[in-house]
Amino acid sequence: MKKIIYILVIIASLSLSSxxxxxxxxxxxxxxxxxxxxxxxxxxxxxxxGNLRGIYxxxxxxxxxxxxxxxxxxxKSFDLMSDLLSSDLAQVGSSYNRFVGLANFVWTxxxxxxLPNYTxxxxxxxxxxxxxxxxxxxxxxxxxxxxxxxxxxxxQAKTIRAFAYFYLSQYFAIKYDAxxxxxxxxxxxxxxxxxxxxxxxxxxxxxADLESGISFMNGYTWPNKASINxxxxxxxxxxxxxxxxQSDKNILAQKLADEVINSGEFTMMDADEVTGGFTTLGTPxxxxxxxxxxxxxxxxxxxxxxxDYYSYSYQxxxxxxxxxxxxxxxxxxxxxxxxxxxxxxxxxxxxxxAPLIPARKFYNLNLVQFGQLPITDDYVYMRVTEMYLLxxxxxxxxxxxxxxxxxxxxxxxxxxxxxxxxxxxxxxxxQALVNEIVFQTKIEFVGEGKSYLLMxxxxxxxxxxxxxLNRAGETISYDDPRVTFSIHQREITxxxxxxxxxx
Length: 503
Description:
- By secondary structure, the chain is mostly helical.
- 43% of the residues lie in helices and 7% in strands.
- The chain is built from 19 helices and ten strands.
- The strands form five sheets. It has a two-stranded antiparallel sheet with strand order 1-5. Strands 2-3 form a two-stranded antiparallel ribbon. It has a two-stranded antiparallel ribbon with strand order 4-8.
- Strand 6 and strand 7 form a beta hairpin.
- Helix 3 packs antiparallel against helix 7 and helix 10 runs parallel beside helix 15.
- The radius of gyration is 22 Å and the shape is globular.
- It starts with a helix and ends in a 9-residue tail after the last helix.
């Protein structure tokens, strides 16, 4: 019993690393082991809500990918990396050399390099294993619980497992190909190393988990946005269906996106909110995120540490990341999103100046260089505007121009003061309409980890603008092997069942 109590305390108080006296230096952190998580759940299933909190905490834990690298800080680290690979986010400065190897495709092409190959694999499979432990402790994969509380727990655990497999499939496969063998599939704790399953098999499991999660969470009392509810599960399934490139799945994606929108649970971010710092989980347009508090002891090794000029950050000392210059130049001057990007110069805002960092999109409201330490601004994983633009995209792809334009204009009405600025949408149709939705998706979600998913599902090629530190002017295609992660040599050595090929 003492061990159970001790483990619960760890879960509840899981903390991240703190800063040392030396700038840009942090010590590794420790966190609850998957073994202890499983043991606790198996001994006393009544505490599974705490175990779920442990998974959500894992998603923001520094160094959880097992490398000790400061670029390793949970799910948002891969959001950042994938945006850089898509080239909508540019690596603009090289001080301290953080993320430069990724932006130059060195990290993805050498499977002996830990970032992101080993860290992504370890992180998402760690999340999967933790979810498997919770599922097993509550009846297993085929359980149909009677208790609403257990339904809510299983619904979240299956959804987070699906979420992890979806991201692994995006990062380690070039495109959706049902017959391609891409990843081992583990749905029970403690399984030995397996051979790769096909993408079709992985997606079958993902969809089954999400459908089960959606069903189990029907009527679930949602404690807060730091956990998954039914609409979040639907949102993840929208992305899954949209990534498959199949007409019937596009229709299902559009239907689910509209269900989330029409639920009335969320309100699209307005002009003040999209330029208001992305600081709080309470923002009505956010669907899912993480409520960062002082107790998390979050500092430099964090998403804010790499994106916010006004936090204790690399962004403040020349290791810049900013919107691609070519993409920025295409934004209408009357679009409020253009004001999100620019160069802070003292107290003077220099709009459009190099290095185009998102200093009026992601920023601590105190507006003091290095001012936020420890980090208390929240993480965002999903917001409802994604559903509007995905609904528009899926409608346009399927030839339903009227529905697509309606959803697109609902977004643009929040980004322009004058309807005349987006009246041109009425004349668009077919591929031109799809292209416009793609463009609006790009500028809406710069820095949020959505550009890579868009690049993959729409099979895009992006030409790097002049502000990229590496390979400026080079056109990068979705099927360029350099934008797909490599299975790390360590995993190939440890599991001979996947040794044939690393992509």
